[in-house]
Amino acid sequence: MLMVDYDPSGWNAPEIKPFGPLSLDPTSSCFHYCPCVFEGMKAYLGPDGKPRLFRPELNMARLLRSAVRATLPAFDPAAALELVKRLVAQEARWIPNKPYHGLYIRPTIIGTRPNVGVMPTDDYALFFTVCVPAGPMFKPGSSTPLALLAMEDRVRAWPGGTGAYKLGANYAPAFESQKEAASRGYNQNLWMIGKNQQICEAGIMNFLVVLKREDGSVDLLTPELDGTILPGVTRQSILELARAHTEGRTELDGILPSTKIHTRETLITLPEVREWNAQGKLLEVFACGTAAVVVPIGRIGINDEDIVFPKYEEGYGPVAKALWQRLVAIQEGRIEWEGWSVPCL
Amino acid sequence: MLMVDYDPSGWNAPEIKPFGPLSLDPTSSCFHYCPCVFEGMKAYLGPDGKPRLFRPELNMARLLRSAVRATLPAFDPAAALELVKRLVAQEARWIPNKPYHGLYIRPTIIGTRPNVGVMPTDDYALFFTVCVPAGPMFKPGSSTPLALLAMEDRVRAWPGGTGAYKLGANYAPAFESQKEAASRGYNQNLWMIGKNQQICEAGIMNFLVVLKREDGSVDLLTPELDGTILPGVTRQSILELARAHTEGRTELDGILPSTKIHTRETLITLPEVREWNAQGKLLEVFACGTAAVVVPIGRIGINDEDIVFPKYEEGYGPVAKALWQRLVAIQEGRIEWEGWSVPCL
């Protein structure tokens, strides 16, 4: 694990040391007021057997934004990335040498000011990073598309809150709803806000919908970044790949070059999704994130109703499948694309 | 400090041991997803020199509600209170033997499930309690009433969130605004929600307003418990004392027995407060909480405007002063009232 202490003198010398417990004063602010921010990244083995990270500079930039939002000390994101790369290079033997497998990396910053006074934690902090081998969350052909339970009376994030940042404080408040979803046979929650049932996120992932146009092209919609949505790296990459396809700059397996994918970041409501589905316009619903990459959504439950989406062999619809395969190929270094896959050695 | 571990076998044997660091796996959920809940309590020395807690059963009941909301393991609040009492009895020598001083007690439960998977933390947790000697936050005659900066574009809590529970996750998201308030010469934030500028809380305290009626009686208003407000023990005690006075069941020094205090838990907006102040109806604005007990509020800043409230000698208005003095007298065991002050020995 990587560890870097921060105290009033600044960031101390970084250390890579064996995985072991953290020793912290019980009055450390992280236990009481939760100034805790993190990132999720994945390292893959390239065809050359060397470890690679996927657009890691985006994660480090977001970690810095999260840290500032939580009043934790700022840091140099390029220097932090160098440390993470060094850790990955050293631990590359833990990356499973199998398709769709990687090493999940968790850079974390916690406030460690040893004082129960309620105040910003910009003077004492700990930056640490641990790694865990990770397999695919969704296995085409054997996994069932996700079932989401929509919560009308629970809200993940609010305008003026921290939904657009990766604060640990966004997560525990969602656990009770997650438990209820599991007890009712759903995998995750569909987070909404407002009386118009505006869709925010799918569990801890971004939410996307594919609609068919009469001219044969499709719309790829996802909620706009209005401050309640986490600006996901996978979300951004999916939008960029779809645009590159539509602009003729790349091809996506299984999607005709002539099939334009019109991306739109916009307000999406659950009643709209229900209506598109009833009209037969809705082709696919899926979620994306670092851990899962791309996962199809099969149904959304609300009250006693289940909105059931079109089914596809292997689970993925054609757009989600094409984007997923392309993303994984880039992540695993089998396809080079705009420097997204960054070697660590 | 008091420590009780929870694992899949249940709550382990409690331990009171010397204050020292906690040793925790770096994947513990508290560092990543913030399943952390706490209470603030104060122990006072009674006239007999013995330590007393103020309505501690209310804190333990709220800690249990917070734990359940954060999907931490449940516990027996009466058993937890016995442990806290034992700790206070043992550490009573740390209670400063001076008026308005006490021992601040911080019962805390953190989720310690050692796994970066995002899921409820009902299987591994740590209940610990530390104590810190504490003096008065507001000194009548020498302290300046609080200045609050109202934030229009930031919210502390929202419907469907966790504002009514004492989750650590409610606090760090507020630090950035607290820092801005401090940099602009304010002590804390005034938290509001919605376009109507509905008032929620004063920093980390409950908010109260006293209005004058034409018949000489007064209204004591505080935001209703709509799910965004922490149900404070001091808030509840103030409302109950005011009602007891109005019903003729007790007297409050400095308030005529004939001066009825009409309590109302209701929606209060900042424009209303401004208007009452301009009309000369507004007598006092104050905040309350365990650490501060009762603190007068002197002004509220919003944008470039300061709403300045009536000034009183020593800072407190008559209603806040009477309630504060009575509360402290009960807390310090100088006045017995409905079993609120509970000896620990």
From TrEMBL, chains A, B:
<dbReference type="Pfam" id="PF01063">
    <property type="entry name" value="Aminotran_4"/>
</dbReference>
<dbReference type="GO" id="GO:0004084">
    <property type="term" value="F:branched-chain-amino-acid transaminase activity"/>
</dbReference>
<comment type="similarity">
    <text>Belongs to the class-IV pyridoxal-phosphate-dependent aminotransferase family.</text>
</comment>
<dbReference type="GO" id="GO:0005739">
    <property type="term" value="C:mitochondrion"/>
</dbReference>
<keyword id="KW-0032">Aminotransferase</keyword>
<keyword id="KW-0663">Pyridoxal phosphate</keyword>
<dbReference type="InterPro" id="IPR043131">
    <property type="entry name" value="BCAT-like_N"/>
</dbReference>
<dbReference type="GO" id="GO:0009099">
    <property type="term" value="P:L-valine biosynthetic process"/>
</dbReference>
<dbReference type="GO" id="GO:0009098">
    <property type="term" value="P:L-leucine biosynthetic process"/>
</dbReference>
<keyword id="KW-0808">Transferase</keyword>
<dbReference type="InterPro" id="IPR005786">
    <property type="entry name" value="B_amino_transII"/>
</dbReference>
<protein>
    <submittedName>
        <fullName>Aminotransferase</fullName>
    </submittedName>
</protein>
<feature type="modified residue" description="N6-(pyridoxal phosphate)lysine">
    <location>
        <position position="166"/>
    </location>
</feature>
<keyword id="KW-0100">Branched-chain amino acid biosynthesis</keyword>
<dbReference type="InterPro" id="IPR043132">
    <property type="entry name" value="BCAT-like_C"/>
</dbReference>
<keyword id="KW-0028">Amino-acid biosynthesis</keyword>
<dbReference type="InterPro" id="IPR001544">
    <property type="entry name" value="Aminotrans_IV"/>
</dbReference>
<dbReference type="InterPro" id="IPR033939">
    <property type="entry name" value="BCAT_family"/>
</dbReference>
<dbReference type="InterPro" id="IPR036038">
    <property type="entry name" value="Aminotransferase-like"/>
</dbReference>
